[in-house]
Amino acid sequence: MKLSIRVDYASRRRAPGRAAIVRWAEAALEGLRRSAVSIGVRIVNEAESAGFNRHYRGRRGPTNVLAFAFENPPGGRSDTLGDLVICAPVVNREARAQGKAAAAHWAHMVVHGIMHLRGYDHKTRREAALMERKEAAILRRLGYADPY
Q: What superfamily in CATH does domain 2-141 come from?
């Protein structure tokens, strides 16, 4: 599969480089039956994350990752899977609080977001268990411990 990934840095506050993000994205897309995939990743600060979170989820404050899946119009075709918005300060703070290496937590956030773009969710216990199993397996292949 050919991956086209755009990474925009609105915040470079201890954010991983593009190569790491591409590596994590490729791992999360393994097994997807498409010839090409396009994804956007925007690394943001807390103010921008809070704005997106409020506008799209009706929740206050910043969050670690938001996933916006692309929906083709009827009859349309596109390689676009969607976009991720990742808040650098939140991800780094969570990694410290959870005693994880920053790279491991960043990898988890990229994988978690892409799993949402692929249609996985965690609204029910059953959905969450499936999503968590898949994420843990991907992260293990990348050399990281189970994040759960």
A: Metalloproteases ("zincins"), catalytic domain (3.40.390.30)
Q: Is the dihedral of CA 94, 100, 106, 112 positive or negative?
A: negative
- pLDDT tens per residue, range 23-73: 999 999 999 999 899 999 999 999 999 999 999 999 999 999 999 999 988
Q: Is the pLDDT of residue 13 over 80?
A: no
Between CA 148 and CA 74 the distance in angstroms is 38
Q: How many other C-beta atoms are found inside a 10 Å radius of the C-beta of residue 12? A: 10
Q: How far is CA 17 from the centre of its chain?
A: 15
Pairing of strands 36-44, 2-9: parallel
Domain boundaries, the chain: 2-141
Closest listed residue to residue 65, CA positions, set 39, 80, 87: 87
| pLDDT at res. 124 | 96
**Dihedral through CA 5, CA 9, CA 14, CA 18, nearest 10?**
20
